[in-house]
Description:
The chain has 9 helices and 11 strands. The chain is α+β, with helices and mostly antiparallel strands. The chain folds into 3 domains: about 10-170, no CATH class; about 225-290, Helix Hairpins, CATH 1.10.287; about 300-450, Heat Shock Protein 90 (2-Layer Sandwich). The two termini are about 40 Å apart.
Amino acid sequence: MSDTLCSHSISRLLARKLAVVTMVVLALLFAGAWASVRMLIKEKNQEEALYRSNVIAQILAREAGNGGEAACLARVRADAPMRANTRLELWRADGSLLYADARSGVHAMSAHTHAIDFDVPAPQLSGGVLKARYTMDFAGDAKFGNQWVLVFVVVTLLAGVLVAAGSRWHVRRALQPLHALAAQTRAISPSRLDQRLHLADPAEELLPWVEQFNALMDRLERAVSQLEAFNADVAHELRTPLAALIGHTEVALSRERSAEELHETLLSSLEEAQRLSAMVNDMLFLSQADRGATARRGAPTSLAALAAQVVEFHEGVAEEAGLAMRIEGDAQAAVDEPLVKRALSNLLSNAIRYAPRGSTLVLRIAPEEGQQLRVEVENAGETIAPQHLPRLFDRFFRADAARCCDGRDGQAHHGLGLAIVAAIARMHGGRPLAESCQGRTRVGFTLLAQG
Length: 451
């Protein structure tokens, strides 16, 4: 069972993530700020408690010097109402309790207290000292802190909501070009392959995608055009031999024929059938090459030796055409020998058909950069127009000034020979090549010496 992927909204996803990030950042900032404020408040409270305890110690020391314990008790009792939210406790030097504020009323304590112990010098009293504890209640500061914590939480949540809403709105607006591109893409159809994507307001992040898509459409349009032209060429090339077969058969059946006449008709039909078979085989080979077939390389061999075998095979036709042939250069390469000989044969056959009588064909083998080898056939003849050179290796391509359908051998050639050369070159990791200037034409290919 195949896994199914659920779609999701980019705007919602980004809005949630931005909201979460915003709340986390604000929470961290507020936590740091609150920790700093809390530490400052604590330090302030400690300083205030220390200051008050010093004041109380000075007052009690003065009262003890003036009137002893009685004066101290009178003073702390008189000041008790003014010590709201605090509590004072006094002990004699022997540890007995001298005074303690009530635990209720203005001296009631919460859970947020801070106590400080100190000594009151009193030489006039027994033991010479009073021990004191001053406790302050900071419930107000705690309440203030809790209120600010609540404010921080509310602000953080509100900021997350606002960021989520705002970012989703902005993201949806920012994604409008993508919706426009999707609409433009939907408008492209087989009958409108010339349509291209464009942005009214080009976005830097989208331009590479638009350019790559348009380049893909350019390649697709060219491929479809080539396919349509190829289909038309195939239909045209198959029509002639099929028409000949049908015509021969109709003529043979139109009246009684002798055995000799039927034999000639069958021979003619066989030639047309063989031509059809050769064309179909060539098309099948090109189809396999287009699907990524690679050459089956053998042990390294001499390319000049392979070329000599091909030259020997074409010697008879070359002599009839009044042409000489020679091989220049050599190189060792691991290649698919049948395929390379087929490519060389196509190149020689092509050159023999169009070289002027009395000229010499040169089959040249030379190394190129890296592990590439260059194999080409050079012949004299009419210079091929520059605009025709890139198309020499197209299937069924013919140019009046360069290549036509029939050679001097009187046979019809269906225009796949150089396309097969290009395919064999690609199967060996190379490329086809063609040059023509000043009455000399060089057609060939490159290949990798090692696979």
